[in-house]
Design brief:
binds iron/sulfur cluster; 19 strands; Transcription Regulator spoIIAA; 13 helices; single chain; 437 residues; 6-stranded parallel β-sheet; binds 5'-deoxyadenosine; alpha/beta; 5-stranded mixed barrel; 22% strand
């Protein structure tokens, strides 16, 4: 039987996938496999994939075609969202692919490799349900300063454009005691900042009413963990953002004043067709309530342009609302139809050219908003968590509590510490400053 010594893992997509890759890597390292940085020398190649847009999938398919020509005796596997969304077709389409491992089966990676070695057949392990063992399993983290913790997996929302409910199953909240235990473990490892991850962190605990721990309660529990300096969370569905959460952000010292709650569109017609279950008026109300409770809070959004039947007027409504709210962080996407979603039944009737024009218009507005905001920040002081050295090795990079990127000259020994930085200028969405002497 062939022996396996090394593996290479490539991650596509979101922070949840990054974390899942660390879980897979830790499993493999526990089986004495060594992680390598180049695919050429690896015995096993794992692609941890994303299905959110067509482009994400195309990148992976391109890689799989590449490996077809040059597989040698490597084992090649696909994990993550594409393993779920294309579970019926991938193994047939790519006979040189050895396995598929679903988003809820991360702890089965060693078993699947054993099966491949003994049976020499294509294997797949794909469950739509959350693997219970996963919550008692702490992955080793590569980043020693900040990392994420998964608190709820899956999504119950079924927004009409989104494939995630198919690739990650229904919402299952992790046991609060296991989350706190992991945060304490990470604090002992020297981690200073944690990001609580979930497709919709605000519905944390709703599926387990007997535990009586909802998302704000979890924040109160985590705020007490010694050694952790900052707590972030993402993503929040606007419909589930409560006043209790806003009060927790205001009252808890470590919880960062930044909320990523995607608006997606500013047109009620489009929001309805997207099945977002809120109107633009409701959305604006939540923004205003947040700003009244936490005046310095910054807000992040995702926007989809070119959803089926989006007229110029619909787009203009998005544009105007974007300008009114003045988002601090924005990810803007062109609509991409996904298989088996409700929206895929509508005709994708906005041309790519128009989607790109709308996307560029919003980007231009976004950059203008940032420029005005950053200009006002010059002359202020910001607390920054120093995360890593810049490329030239002369400065440190970090973020403010409200999520602005900051670059300042300092030595690497300050990495991991909180520093007060005088903001002096900015370029390319990064504030620049120095530590007062
Ligand atoms: N097309 C374009 N963007 C999408 N998103 C989700 N599904 C699609 C799709 N089919 C975006 C949404 C979501 C973010 C993670 O990706 O804006 O918030
Ligand atoms: Fe997708 Fe909507 Fe769930 Fe977010 S809330 S993961 S956009 S279905």
């Amino acid at each position: 039987m062939k022996t396996l010594n090394t593996f290479y893992i490539r991650t596509y997509g979101c922070q949840m996938n990054e974390l899942d890759s660390e879980i897979i890597s830790t499993q493999l390292q526990m089986s004495n496999l060594k992680k390598v940085d180049d695919e050429v020398s690896a015995d096993i190649i794992i692609l941890n994939t994303c299905s959110i847009r067509d482009l994400s999938e195309k990148k992976v398919l391109g890689k799989l075609f590449e490996y077809k020509k040059d597989k040698k005796d490597k084992i090649i596997g696909v994990c993550g969202c594409m393993a779920m969304s294309q579970k019926e077709t991938l193994l047939k389409k790519f006979p040189h692919l050895d396995f598929l491992l679903g988003t809820n089966n991360l702890l089965d990676i060693n078993k699947i490799l054993d099966d491949i070695l003994t049976k020499n057949l294509q294997e797949k392990k794909i469950d739509l349900n959350y693997e219970i063992g996963l919550e008692n399993f702490f992955a080793k983290r590569e980043n020693k300063i900040k990392t994420s913790i998964s608190i709820i997996r899956g999504c119950n929302n079924f927004c009409s454009y989104c494939i995630v409910p198919q690739t990650r199953g229904r919402e299952v909240s992790r046991d609060p005691s296991s989350i706190v235990k992991e945060a304490k473990y990470l604090a002992r490892e020297g981690i200073k900042e944690i990001t609580l991850l979930g497709q919709n962190v605000n519905s944390y605990g709703l599926d387990k009413p007997e535990k009586k721990v909802l998302f704000p309660d979890l924040l109160y529990m985590l705020d007490k963990v010694d050694g952790i300096e900052r707590i972030r969370f993402m993503t929040s569905h606007p419909k589930d953002i409560t006043k209790d959460l806003m009060l927790a952000i205001r009252d808890l010292k470590k919880v960062c004043e930044f909320v990523h709650f995607p608006m997606q569109s500013g047109s009620n017609k489009i929001l309805k067709a997207m099945r977002r279950t809120y109107t633009k008026e409701h959305y604006l109300e939540k923004v205003n309530l947040l700003k009244s409770i936490v005046p310095n809070a910054t807000i992040g959004t995702d926007i989809i342009v070119g959803f089926p039947n989006e007229t110029d007027e619909d787009f203009l409504e998005t544009y105007k609302l974007f300008d009114e709210i003045k988002f601090d962080t924005a990810f803007i996407f062109a609509y991409s139809p996904r298989q088996n979603t409700l929206a895929s039944r509508y005709e994708d009737n906005i041309s790519n050219t128009l989607k790109q024009q709308r996307l560029q218009k919003l980007l231009k507005l976004y950059h203008k908003i940032l420029e005005t905001k950053y200009t006002k920040l010059i002359g202020t002081k910001k607390e920054v968590l120093a995360e890593k050295l810049s490329k030239d090795g002369k400065s440190l990079k970090g973020r403010t509590k409200t999520f602005e990127k900051v670059l300042f000259p300092a030595e690497s020994k300050l990495i991991g510490s909180l520093q007060t930085v005088d903001i002096e200028s900015f370029s390319h969405q990064t504030l620049k400053g120095s530590i007062p002497s």
